[in-house]
């Protein structure tokens, strides 16, 4: 017996839940199945930082207030590789919500909206003329592959994995902090750059702490990954001994593939939608999941073309900006110049937050100001 669904979503992280929620929001009678290999609540290695931009996506999905019981994080402190510092209040607050809680809330909201949620691991996809067959048992007019960084759906759809040079790896843990610690802290590292450690207080006397670097830099150390990541975290945040350490890959957007094939759409990490400057992926996951859901409803006959158009409209210029900035950011001096400028000019700080955590772009005069500072710093050093 083959079951038929309008949309099958593989993966119940933010991308998958957003896709399922959007389909039901636009077409309540649609038959939507969400399959995840894990039962919820489940943990996910992440910094748990949800940017204000991600919160706006939750509003669009009809879930305002879903994280309002968590304390808003208004202050952000960043230290650049060369020691330039900025500490400022962000224009719109971020939130830190453990993924065990956040993802389970989204899955539960999807279930409440009529999405069928099942535990299962997808292993096989067969494209047919007007549907896709999953594991020989389930047929879908559209499949949304939202199965994360090591996406099986992406591989089965014939799309290549993210190249190592555009992949990062990060470890996160939890540490005790004073309950009134409310500064999100990021310490960038010259040694092994691009690399940084973070501490994101949750508001309950604990903080999510972690350390991440790119795969080529990790391989260049010639040492086991676990030893390097755990060691660097302990070294960089010596006063915050971390428990529950867990690591995962981050496929970054400069290595993104075509976001699907035929009736298969890729969203979130499965589409390599992680910001190469910050490692932020939850906002992109919610946004791309929502757009995949919209394409599945509005263009059921040819969802990929519609999805690509929507993604391009929402993120095209931004992704071209971050592609370019991530190349410039290979030089720690560029980041020093950007943070140095942000420390002096409020509008630059706001823009950096928008580019790093949202869909912001950089106006040419500002790019020129940072380039001037970069050059000036280089000349002074010379
Ligand atoms: C250490 C670390 C820190 C990070 N910090 C931040 C941060 O602070 N803020 C931020 O915005 N981003 C952060 N990110 C990135 C963020 O975690 C991801 O971008 C985000 O989780 C992407 O969501 P997703 O829904 O695409 O995938 P995921 O959240 O990975 O969900 C994928 C789901 O698919 C399921 N699945 C996998 N394979 C199958 C299969 N074959 N069949 C069925 N189900 C399957 C999994 O069980 C999982 O539930 C961090 C990443 C790491 C590794």
UniProtKB/TrEMBL annotation:
SUPFAM superfamilies: FAD/NAD(P)-binding domain. This is Geranylgeranyl hydrogenase BchP. Coiled coil: none annotated. Gene3D superfamilies: FAD/NAD(P)-binding domain (3.50.50.60). GO terms for molecular function: FAD binding; oxidoreductase activity, acting on the CH-CH group of donors, NAD or NADP as acceptor. It comes from the Bacteria. Residues 6-181 form the FAD-binding domain. Signal peptide: none annotated. InterPro entries: FAD-bd, FAD/NAD-bd_sf, Geranylgeranyl_Rdtase_fam, Geranylgeranyl_reductase.
């Amino acid at each position: 017996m083959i079951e038929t669904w309008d949309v099958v979503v593989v993966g119940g992280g933010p991308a998958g839940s957003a896709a399922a929620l959007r389909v039901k929001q636009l077409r309540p009678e649609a038959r939507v199945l969400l399959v995840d290999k894990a039962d919820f609540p489940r943990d996910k290695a992440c910094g748990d930082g949800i940017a204000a931009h991600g919160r706006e996506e939750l509003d669009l999905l009809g879930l305002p207030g879903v994280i309002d019981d968590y304390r808003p994080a208004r202050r952000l402190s960043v230290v650049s590789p060369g020691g330039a510092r900025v500490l400022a209040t962000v224009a719109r607050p971020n939130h830190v919500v453990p993924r065990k809680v956040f993802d389970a809330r989204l899955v539960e909201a999807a279930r409440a909206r009529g999405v069928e949620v099942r535990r299962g691991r997808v292993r096989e996809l067969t494209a047919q003329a007007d549907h896709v067959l999953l594991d020989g048992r389930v047929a879908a007019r559209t499949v949304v592959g939202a199965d994360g960084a090591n996406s099986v759906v992406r591989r089965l759809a014939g799309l290549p994995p993210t190249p190592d040079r555009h992949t990062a790896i990060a470890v996160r843990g939890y540490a005790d902090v004073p309950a009134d610690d409310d500064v999100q802290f990021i310490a960038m590292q010259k040694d092994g750059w691009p690399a940084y450690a973070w501490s994101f207080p949750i508001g309950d006397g604990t903080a999510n702490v972690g350390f991440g670097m790119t795969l080529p830099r990790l391989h260049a150390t010639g040492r086991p990954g676990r030893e390097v990541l755990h060691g660097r975290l302990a070294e960089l945040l010596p006063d915050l001994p971390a428990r529950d350490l867990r690591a995962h890959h981050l496929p970054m957007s400069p290595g993104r593939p075509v976001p699907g094939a035929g009736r298969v759409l890729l969203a979130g990490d499965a589409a390599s939608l992680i910001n190469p400057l910050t490692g932020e992926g939850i906002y992109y996951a919610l946004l791309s999941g929502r757009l995949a859901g919209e394409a599945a409803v509005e263009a059921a006959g040819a969802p990929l073309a519609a999805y690509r158009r929507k993604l391009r409209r929402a993120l095209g210029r931004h992704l071209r900006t971050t592609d370019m900035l991530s190349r410039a950011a290979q030089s720690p001096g560029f980041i020093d110049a950007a943070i140095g400028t942000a420390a002096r000019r409020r509008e630059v700080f706001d823009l950096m937050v928008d580019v790093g955590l949202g869909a912001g772009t950089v106006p040419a005069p500002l790019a020129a100001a940072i380039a001037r500072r970069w050059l000036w710093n280089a000349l002074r050093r010379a």
